[in-house]
Write a structure and sequence with these properties.
The chain has 429 residues and is mainly α. Helices cover 77% and strands 0% of the residues. 52% of the residues are buried.
Length: 429
């Protein structure tokens, strides 16, 4: 029966059926095969709504709306300028500024695709005009965008924490060091390629210019400080923090920068609803399929297979990382997280891995899939902006993928990188 469900699932993926419908149809087929008719079909709507019946998931639409508001307010331009002032005078300065801007941008949206679109629209044309190869410019933009959902706030962490009953605040605290590690390794690769290809340096900035850029960047940089400071201090929950972020973004956009008009709100609400609806459809339908797999003891079978292969926790982690990297290449990362999380999380914990550490490792491995062909969402956005083919961008981004996979293995095998801050703040004993 499970074989039939998997055949249906992969067949629909191959012919291009949207992942939300693919998951739902595969789950319903499983219910029909289990119940010898329509007897179990009533479980489909029940599991759909059960999968969404988590208050913490309300943080997601608020974070998405906050990001839309900050983008519309012109915050991206200020962050890019601030990053360029700090590192633009290095060899390949605009590439480094691109990566650093993603670090700053990460504290506002937690979404890689938004990062690619917002920063790429500004910096890809600027880099090309300054003498950078267009494929390199697009590759740096797409590669650095996954810093966004790694450094909190992160929608993927919200999903993982909600489903696995792991502290979202703890996951947020754990995301900082891996995010900074990613940025550092990407800047190392950018520096190497910039020296090798002779990319230009930007002009040195004066102290006065640095001061002005810092003053302009204070307003957007206060947003992640307020959000994360409130969550990590226990002042408010992640859901409350997300709503505070929306309130802050509205105040800044309407009254401080005066760049948002009342007519801008409706389109942003529509876009937020569309993105949220897509993700929630995936979560709901994946819950149906996950229930079918659980009832048929598929997680236990996979766990038994992994443990029968080896009892060494390091080798099991290696198999898990390879599985997630491969699955992420072909499946929506939210769907992969929802399906694989309940299967792999208990295995990792039983082998001694700390839940927050494994959560960060899983989120990071799936984030890398956003920039790997054939279905990496950030690749398509970068291709659209730069007007180059997917094949050309895939070749140019390969060195950056290597650096990010290295970062993934460092995080996976050196737990203290992700657990240092959570331990310091009391989320891990």
């Amino acid at each position: 029966m499970i074989v039939s469900v998997l055949i249906v699932f992969f067949a629909m993926l191959v012919i291009g059926v949207p992942i939300g419908f693919t998951l739902g149809i595969a789950g319903v087929v499983g219910l029909l095969l289990m119940g010898s008719g329509v007897g179990l079909l009533s479980m489909a709507p029940l599991q759909f709504f059960t999968g969404l019946d988590m208050f913490t998931l309300m943080a997601m639409p608020f974070f998405i709306l906050a990001g839309e508001l900050m983008n519309k307010a012109g915050i991206t331009r200020r962050l890019v300028h601030f990053a360029n002032v700090l590192v633009g005078h290095w060899r390949g300065g605009l590439a480094h500024a691109n990566i650093l801007a993603s670090v700053f941008f990460a504290g506002m949206t937690g979404a890689a695709v938004s990062d690619t679109a917002a920063i790429g629209t500004m910096l890809i044309p600027a880099m090309v005009e300054d003498g950078y190869d267009v494929d390199f410019s697009a590759a740096v933009t797409a590669a650095s965008s996954i810093i966004g959902p790694t450094i909190p706030p992160s929608n993927m962490m919200v999903i993982y924490g909600s489903l696995m009953n792991v502290s979202i605040a703890g996951l947020f605290a754990a995301g900082f060091m891996p995010g900074f590690l990613l940025a550092a390794l990407l800047m190392v690769m950018s520096a190497y390629l910039s020296f090798k290809r002779g990319y230009p340096k930007g002009p040195k900035t004066t102290f006065k210019e640095k001061l002005i850029a810092t003053k302009d960047a204070i307003i957007p940089l206060l947003m992640p400080i307020i959000i994360l400071g409130g969550i990590l201090s226990g002042l408010f929950t992640p859901t409350e923090a997300a709503s505070v972020a929306v309130f802050y973004a509205l105040i800044i956009g309407f009254f401080v920068l005066k760049s948002i008009k009342l007519r801008d709100i409706a389109p942003m609400l529509v876009k937020t609803a569309r993105v949220t609806g897509t993700v929630f459809l995936i979560i709901g339908t994946a819950s149906i399929l996950s229930w079918v797999l659980a009832i048929n003891q598929v997680p236990q079978a996979i766990a038994a297979f992994l443990i029968s292969t080896t009892r060494d926790p390091k080798l099991v982690m290696l198999l898990i990382l390879l599985l997630m990297l491969v699955v992420g290449m072909f499946m929506d990362i939210a769907a992969a997280l929802i399906i694989l999380g309940p299967i792999l999380h208990p295995i990792a914990v039983s082998l001694g891995y700390q839940p927050i550490h494994f959560g960060i490792t899983m989120v990071l491995s799936l984030n890398i899939a956003l920039m790997t062909p054939p279905v990496g969402a950030c690749l398509f956005v970068a291709c659209s902006i730069s007007k180059i083919s997917l094949a050309k961008l895939s070749k140019a981004i390969f060195p950056f993928i290597i650096m990010e996979v290295i970062a993934l293995f460092i995080v996976a095998y050196i737990p203290e990188i992700s657990l240092f801050l959570p331990r310091l703040l009391g989320f891990v004993k």
